[in-house]
Each structure stands twice: as C-alpha cells, then as structure tokens.
Amino acid sequence: MKAAIVGEVAAIEGVSWCAISSIEGFIHEVEGAPAIFLEGIGSLIPSILNTASILLSNIELGEPRIVTLNGVDGILVVATINDSYSIVCKTEKGANLGMIRKQIEIASENLIPLL
C-alpha cells in the first residue's frame, strides 16, 4: 500500500521521483529513481527539516509541514508524515507546485496509519 501511494505521487505530471524517508535518512519506498540514487537525498532530509523547524520556531510559526527547496534544475518538496517519516519528491521546473503540494499532503495523511 505504501508503494502505491508513493507511486501515485510519482505519476503526477512534472514529478521526477517520490520516496519515503525515515528521520535517520534511510529511503524506504521509492518510485521513479533507483533507491541508491536517493541515498544522498535521504541523508539530507533530517537536516532540511531541522533547519526549517529552527527558522519557523524563531518567527513563532510552529513545526514545518511541507518544506520546498527551489533549485536551478527543479524543486525538492519534503512533507512530514509523522515523527519518524517524511515523503519527498523532486519536481521539474515549471511543474504545478500547488497541485503537487496538495497531493503530497493527501499522500502524507494516507501514509500515517501505514507508518
């Protein structure tokens, strides 16, 4: 079931790949790219979420739900599922980011009982 949810996000137009990452940085499910390719990304996720948490705390906005990093070659979207897992995807430049973020929110909610 987890793989199907990740696959649904990966199948969205403009999404290059999607994965579930643990707070330790391990990739547990992936669609659209080999898991070994995402090992480096997985190790960055805890740091990304921690940095966002610190920044949001400083301006009293609470914990991050979705963090978006905009790069030259695409966008990385990380959404917290629970205290132990996140869902992360890479999108192409020009992708419908609003729609993708909404689908990631839905995927996160659907993954909560599975994780």
Descriptive overview:
There is one protein chain. By secondary structure, the protein is an alpha+beta fold. The chain is 38% helix and 29% strand. It has a 5-stranded antiparallel beta sheet with strand order 2-1-5-4-3, with helices on both faces. Helix 1 runs antiparallel to helix 3. 34% of the residues are buried. The model has no long low-confidence stretch (mean pLDDT 85).
Concise summary:
The chain is an alpha+beta fold and 115 residues long. It contains three helices and five strands.
Topology:
Layout: H1 2-10, E1 15-22, E2 27-31, H2 39-58, E3 66-71, E4 74-80, E5 85-91, H3 97-111
Antiparallel strand pairs: 1-2, 1-5, 3-4, 4-5
Helix pairs in contact: 1-3
Helix content: 25-40%
| Number of DSSP strand runs | 5
Strand content: 25-35%
Separate helix tally: 3
**How are the strands of the biggest sheet laid out side by side?**
2-1-5-4-3
**Amino- and carboxy-terminal Cα gap:** 11 Å
Largest sheet: 5 strands, antiparallel
Residue stretches low in confidence (pLDDT < 50, at least 5 long) are none
Kindly provide the radius of gyration, computed on alpha-carbon positions and rounded to a whole number of angstroms.
Answer: 13 Å
Structure classification: alpha+beta
Average pLDDT works out at: 85
Report the principal-axis shape. globular
Q: What is the element string, with H for helices and E for strands?
A: HEEHEEEH
